[in-house]
Amino acid sequence: MDGNGRWSEQKGKHRVFGHKHGVKALRKAIVFAAEQKIQALTIFAFSSENWKRPEEEVNMLMELFFTVLGGEVKTLHKNNIKLNIIGDIASFSDRLQKKIHAAHLLTANNTGLALNVAANYGGRWDITNATRQIAQQAVDGSLNVEDINEALLTQTLSLSELPDIDLMIRTGGDYRISNFLLWQLAYAELYFTDTLWPDFDAQSFQLAVDAFKSKERRFGQTSAQITS
Ligand code: IPE
Ligand code: MG
Fold first, then answer.
1. Averaged pLDDT, 202-220
2. Closest ligand to 26 CA?
3. Cβ count within 10 A of residue 217
4. What residues are in contact with ligand 1 under a 6 Å CB criterion?
């Protein structure tokens, strides 16, 4: 979800204005994903690196996260959406952590859209965290080093209950992954658009899905193999 700041600056407004409109765009994206029966939607809300922003903006984003989480969870639950916050949430304030746990608990058994919100998330953090857990099991003697394989890594990382990612959309005109789901994106189709996040609507989402549908996904095979 990139481009909130530029969107507000273009309008001569403070960055907070863009972030608030970014929340509106997020609601639209969730509705679209649920209506289209997309299995999972993972959004990058706050990266491990976003702490480096001016303190005022970080505080504002935390406050916005807290308010939105508190205000939206019931609606998500009513719509059978399973909410999962991924990332190093231990660095958040106690009250935010409590809200996160309550949201997980409330929506845990929902069977509709899996909505994952990456907060204080970094792909490198995720891989490092999984590596630490695996190493600990090896040290404890509950795991043989020979049993460390790609499947085990996948199971230990965030989003382990979901299949590999099909499509990554980045708004805001930059062609980067910016430490998002590095492992999980291995075979994802990458879609970049200049549209700034607050302007990203159902039509923009549909364009991205259409682009995805037009791709031939070979997973290392030849075109002839997969079309035969
Ligand atoms: C994305 O918009 C939202 C967050 C990272 C929280 P930005 O705040 O990065 O917007 P730009 O890139 O400055 O326009
Ligand atoms: Mg940005």
1. 96
2. 1
3. 11
4. 1-6, 22, 46, 50, 61, 172, 197
50 counts as catalytic = yes
CA angle 8, 11, 14 (to 5 degrees): 45
Long-range contacts of 10-14 (CB under 8 A, 24+ apart): 10/196
Atom 9, ligand 1: which residue's CA is nearest? 2
Q: Cα separation of 68 and 65, whole Å? A: 5
Q: pLDDT digit string (tens) for 15-63?
A: 999 999 999 999 999 999 999 999 999 999 999 999 999 999 999 999 9
Cα gap 16→8, rounded to integer Å? 8
Q: Which of 50, 79, 129, 179 is catalytic?
A: 50
pLDDT, one tens digit per residue, over 149-178 is 999 999 999 999 999 999 999 999 999 999
Contact 184, 157 (CB under 8 A): yes
Domains, the chain, in order of start with CATH, read: 4-214 (3.40.1180.10)
Active site residue 2: yes
Q: How confident is the model at residue 228 (pLDDT cuts 50, 70, 90)?
A: confident
d(CA 55, CA 52): 8
pLDDT of residue 45: 96
